[in-house]
Amino acid sequence: xxxxxxxxxxxxxxxxxxxxxxxxxxxxxxxxxxxxxxxxxxxxxxxxxxxxxxxxxxxxxxxxxxxxxxxxxxxxxxxxxxxxxxxxxxxxxxxxxxxxxxxxxxxxxxxxxxxxxxxxxxxxxxxxxxxxxxxxxxxxxxxxxxxxxxxxxxxxxxxxxxxxxxxxxxxxxxxxxxxxxxxxxxxxxxxxxxxxxxxxxxxxxxxxxxxxxxxxxxxxxxxxxxxxxxxxxxxxxxxxxxxxxxxxxxxxxxxxxxxxxxxxxxxxxxxxxxxxxxxxxxxxxxxxxxxxxxxxxxxxxxxxxxxxxxxxxxxxxxxxxxxxxxxxxxxxxxxxxxxxxxxxxxxxxxxxxxxxxxxxxxxxxxxxxxxxxxxxxxxxxxxxxxxxxxxxxxxxxxxxxxxxxxxxxxxxxxxxxxxxxxxxxxxxxxxxxxxxxxxxxxxxxxxxxxxxxxxxxxxxxxxxxxxxxxxxxxxxxxxxxxxxxxxxxxxxxxxxxxxxxxxxxxxxxxxxxxxxxxxxxxxxxxxxxxxxxxxxxxxxxxxxxxxxxxxxxxxxxxx
Length: 559
Prior knowledge:
The structure is a single chain. By secondary structure, the chain is mainly beta. It has four domains: 45-99 and 126-174, Mitogen Ypm (Jelly Rolls), CATH 2.60.120; 178-244 and 278-330, Sandwich (Immunoglobulin-like), CATH 2.60.40.10; 334-428, GOLD domain (Jelly Rolls, Sandwich); 445-554, Immunoglobulins (Immunoglobulin-like), CATH 2.60.40. Helices cover 12% and strands 42% of the residues. The chain contains seven helices and 36 strands. β13 (260-265) and β14 (268-275) form a beta hairpin.
C-alpha cells in the first residue's frame, strides 16, 4: 500500500515509462521486443514545449522524436499540432501511449505478479499511431483526449538535411499563434500587362481583429510557389545569399547584402534579391489586399505567394500561391536610317522601351557614329538577325562594320537608368564625309591649382593635328548646384544653348606633333572665392560641335 502511494507522486511521463518497463517482463517474445523499442524511443525523445514554436533540425535518414503529456483532470482536453516543413518533404507521425487499467498508482488489492502478467497481456493495446503524413505542406492535427496520455512525435527526412517548425498548443480558446486565413485563401490575378501583374486576395480575419500587428507580404520569383514563408527564406538562403531572419521584420537597410536592393515608396517595403535563377522580390504592403507588381520582364512567367504575418509573434500563414505570364512586348516601331543623316533619339528611362533604327547597306563597309548626349544607353546591333555589336555607350563612339551589299542592320537603343537619356546616331559608308571632327586622345579639361588667383583661372585642353575651332564658355554656379549641373549637362548641345554673356573666347590651333597639341587659356575677371563651370566646344568641318567634359574650378578666397 505504501508503494502505491509512492507512484502517485511521480510525474505522468515517468509513470508511463515505468509502465513500459513492467510490460517488458512479459514472457511473449514479440511484445517484449516491441516494447523494448518503445522504451528506447521514449528515452531518446525531447519534451515538446506547449504554446511555443519549436525549430527542429533533421539529419538525413535519422529520425527525431519529441513527446508531450496531457495531464489528467481535464475532461475532453483539446490540443493541436502544426508542422511546417522549411525545405524538402518530410515524414512525421503521432503515436499515443494510453494509460492501461490498473497501472502503478492505480493499483487494486491483489497479487502483484498477477497484475504484471495482466498488464503484459494488455500492453499491445496501449500504443497506437493516430496520425501519419508525408509531404512538404503545412499540416495541422487537431485532437481531443478524454484521459491522461503520453504522445510521441517522430520526424524523418529521407532526401537531405533540413529543418522544420513545430507548434503544440493545449489552449485553443485564447487565440492562435498563426494568423487566420480566409475561407477562400486563393490569390486572384485581376490584371496582366507587359511589365505588371495586379493581384488581389480576400482579407484575413486576423487583419480585422489585430490591424496594427498584422501585415501582408508578397514574394515574387521565377521558379515556383512556396508553401510557407519558412520554405521561401530557406530557398533564398540556399541560392548563396544571407537573408534577414524574417521577411516581415527585414525592414532595416543595414541588414541587406550586396545582392539585395531595398526600395521604400508609398509606405511599401520592397527587397529585391539578385539570385542565379532571377530576381526574388519581397514586398510588404501593410493591410492592403490588392497590389500591382511593377517592373517585370515581358513574356516571363512569375510565381506569386502572399503571406499574412503577425509582427508580434513573427508567425505567418500562406495563401494558396498563383502564377501568371506577362504579355509579350509589342514589336518596336522601326525608324529608317539614311546615309549621313543624323537622328536624335530620346529614351524614357522609366518605361524602359527599346528604340529601333534600321539601315540597309549600299556598300560593304558601314560606319556607325554614336554621340551620347545625356544619361546611360546600351546599343545592340544585328546584321540580318545576327548580333554584331552590343555595348554601353560612352561619349563619342565609332563602329565600323563590314558585310555585304544590301545587308540589313537593326540598331536597338535602351536607357540603362530611370532618368531620360538621349543620343545622336549616324550611319554612312566609310568614305562619307565625317560627321564629327577629329578628336583628341582625351576630352578632359585640366586646371592648374598653382596658377589660380582670386580673379583668374588657367585651364588647358588637348587639340589634334587638324586645324579646328575651339570656343570657351564659363558659368558662375553655387556649390550645391555642382552635382546637378554635371549630371544634367547635355553633351550634344552646342554654344547656341548658352547665354551670350557666358562666352569667353574662340580660337583656332593645331599641331602636327600630338605631344605638343596642347593649348592653355587664362580666364580673367572672375570673383574671389567663387565656383565657375568651364566648357570647351570643338568645331569640325561639318560645323557640329563636340563638347569637352565640363570642369568646375573655385577661385582663391584670399590672395
